[in-house]
Structures are given as C-alpha cells and as structure tokens.
Fold this protein.
Amino acid sequence: MSQHPEQGNADSTVFSDRKVTTNLLTQMKEAGTPIAALTAYDYTMAQLLDQAGVDLILVGDSVSTVMQGLETTVTVTMEHMVYHASLVRRGVERALVVADLPFMSYQVNSDEALRNAGRMVKEAGAEAVKLGGGRVVAETVGRIVDVGIPVMGHLGLTPQSIHKFGTYQVRATDEKEADELRRDAKLLEQAGVFSIVLEKVPAALAREVTESVSVPVIGIGAGGGCDGQILVSHDMLGICTRFNPRFVRKYGNFADEMRGAFERFTEDVRGRDFPSEDESY
C-alpha cells in the first residue's frame, strides 16, 4: 500500500543521487516520495531532463504527434521507436529510460512481442519497455518479464486504441469500466510489471488503484493520488500548442520565445546585422 501524497514527507534527496532502477522506484513508492517522469525523443532533451533530476524518461510513441506531425500514435514503427530510444539513452546517466512498444509490435503474439522488447533493450539500450492493455496482454507481459526485461503497464486512456475508443475523453467513468480497470491493474501486477501508467481516469479511482497495488502508479490526467506524475515535455513547455488538455500545466511558453528568437535571427540576417565583426574570423 502506498502512502497518500499528504502522508509522503520523505526527503527526496535520499534518492536524488542514485541511479534510478525499477527497484528504486518501488522504494520511492514505499517512502512516499513522488516520482517525476517526462518524455524525450532526442539526445539534447534527454540530457536536460536527466540533469534536472527527472526520475523516469519515457520515449513515448507520442513521437508521432510531437515530432512527426501526425494525428495519432498508431503509425509509429519499431524502427522509429528504436531510433529515438537510442538517441535518448545516450543523453541519460541517472534516470530510468523506458521506451514504448508501438502499436502492433506486441499485440500479434507473445513471441513477436518478446522479440521486439528484446530489440528495444539490445539495439536501443532502453532499460524497460511500456505497453498498453490489461487482461489481453498479461500473458505477454509475463513472458517479457521472465526473460529479464522490465515492463511498465498502461491503463485507462491508451492512445494506441483511439480507433476503438473514438475519443480522447476520460475513461472508466462508469462502474463497469472502473471495475475492469481495477482488475487489469491487479492482473498486470501479478504478471510482473514494475509500474503502471494511469491515463485520464477519475482521480478517486486512480488513488484507489494506486493504493491497491504494490508497484508504483504514474498518473497523467489522473489526479494527485498516484505515486508519480508524467507529462509530455513539449506540452508542459508550451512548445506544442495544438494540444491543450486540462491536465497539462504549462511551465513555460517556449513556442512564443522560440518563434521570437527565430524572427530576430531572420531580421538580423536580412538587415546584415548578423554576423558582426566580433562574430567573424
């Protein structure tokens, strides 16, 4: 059972200098120390997140919408994910690097899922993989874990299933789906996941699930009762402006700042103010 956030007053510096592992995340849950997680898709961003003390860096299949300009995550391939995960891994020393297994890389059968999880670890250097679903993927999760690859689960709104849901609205608002989510969380725990992401579910349900499992639960749009929180870095920086859900707190407005810098550069070049004599050889 995890402590509620208001009960978790453990000094986070106890964990701040230690390499983050799946075991350390469990210790953080037990100590009531919230886990900070963000996404990255390249070396530079990953390095900055790691230097800032982020505990877990997710190479998300959200690369499709953030970096590729696509509408959904379903078109992302293993090659895309392996490439981006390898870039991120090079920039990280402390944080745990987790990579999404993309749509149809694990759903066909557990053999294919095992091969693709192995690729993510062996070729990209990821330290864990994440996949969506509950009961239907529990056996697959068990097989991957059995060979020594840590798995993070993902319940609630799973963007890879957008064509099934047909909407990005909050999930598990009715009791039937809430019960299913409760059962799926326990099944994933039993299958051996080291953590579970809960996305866009009611806060009370997320708190209940968090307290019912022994593994850390990371929320996104799931209230403050989870063991940690994750956001897409480009969303919280205000770089991506087309996606503005209520659960994203903007810690900057870098889209305007970057656009302004690009405009000033363009003006300086056209006005022959750049480069100056001091900037020339």
Notes: The CA atoms of residues 65 and 71 lie 6 Å apart. The domain at 13-250 is CATH 3.20.20.60 (TIM Barrel). The chain has a mean pLDDT of 92.
